[in-house]
Design a protein that fits this description.
single chain, 2 domains
Length: 231
């Protein structure tokens, strides 16, 4: 009995049934694009602006793999649709005839979308944090294999060991770590000369001799390894 009632109720809650109703629903979705499941640019929206938003989010989030990238793109779409909510709220409020029902509908959807954005951002941060730690551990292991290859004077076994890093990436990581180590030594050796209460006069830095004699001056030139070294 309950199943029959559920089926009957479902038939009355599946949205427009007639072709006219479906067409009207489609026009409404295309009109403001707020309820669309897939982001399609509206006539008044700029493809360049959307592409710029995508590139900006990718640069800011720095996804480490394809799943992370897809999650970032999902966040971009949610934010793009959220901006539509704001624009439509402005249109409703500035109209000669105030539509309370439309404003309530848009506002409720905006609230739901805001929660979706927060949830998606939380998911990305958690996944990115885990992947960053995994990548850090893998990089350390790959560097060990690479250094062993150099000591043994053998062809690179980095790729054969299952690592995806290039020789350039490994060399860059090694030189960067060495540069940071030497920089910390410089700061530690001259800690008593640093007065954090006084502003640094960058115009007279050439007169400050705090670089030790054994510092590798060529290290910075080797930061970017040759492009022909690939694992």
């Amino acid at each position: 009995m309950h199943d029959e009632r559920n089926k009957a109720n479902a038939q009355h809650s599946t949205g427009p049934i007639t072709e006219q109703g479906k067409a009207a629903s489609a026009r409404n979705s295309t009109k403001h694009g707020i309820f669309a499941q897939v982001t399609t640019l509206l006539p008044e929206e700029s493809q360049d602006a959307y592409d710029g938003s995508v590139q900006g989010w990718l640069a800011a989030c720095n996804p480490l793999n394809e799943p992370e990238k897809q999650l970032v793109l999902h966040i971009v779409d949610l934010n793009w649709r959220m901006a539509r909510v704001s624009r439509w709220e402005t249109k409703i409020l500035s109209a000669e005839t105030f539509d309370f029902k439309a404003l309530n509908t848009i506002s409720l959807h905006g609230a739901r979308m805001s929660k979706q954005i927060s949830a998606a951002m939380k998911d990305f941060r958690e996944i990115h944090r885990e992947n960053t730690e995994l990548r850090k551990n893998a990089l350390e292991d790959a560097i060990t294999v690479h250094q062993a290859d150099i000591i043994r004077n053998r062809p690179s076994t980095v790729a054969a060991a299952g690592f995806v890093f290039t020789i350039d990436e490994l060399e860059h990581a090694i030189h960067l770590a060495e540069h940071l180590r030497q920089s910390k030594e410089i700061v530690d050796d001259h800690e008593d000369e640093i007065d954090i209460d006084e502003p640094v006069d960058f115009t007279n830095l050439n007169d400050v001799e705090i670089i030790p004699e054994d510092y590798d001056d060529d290290l910075l030139d080797r930061w970017k390894p040759s492009e022909d070294k690939v694992a």
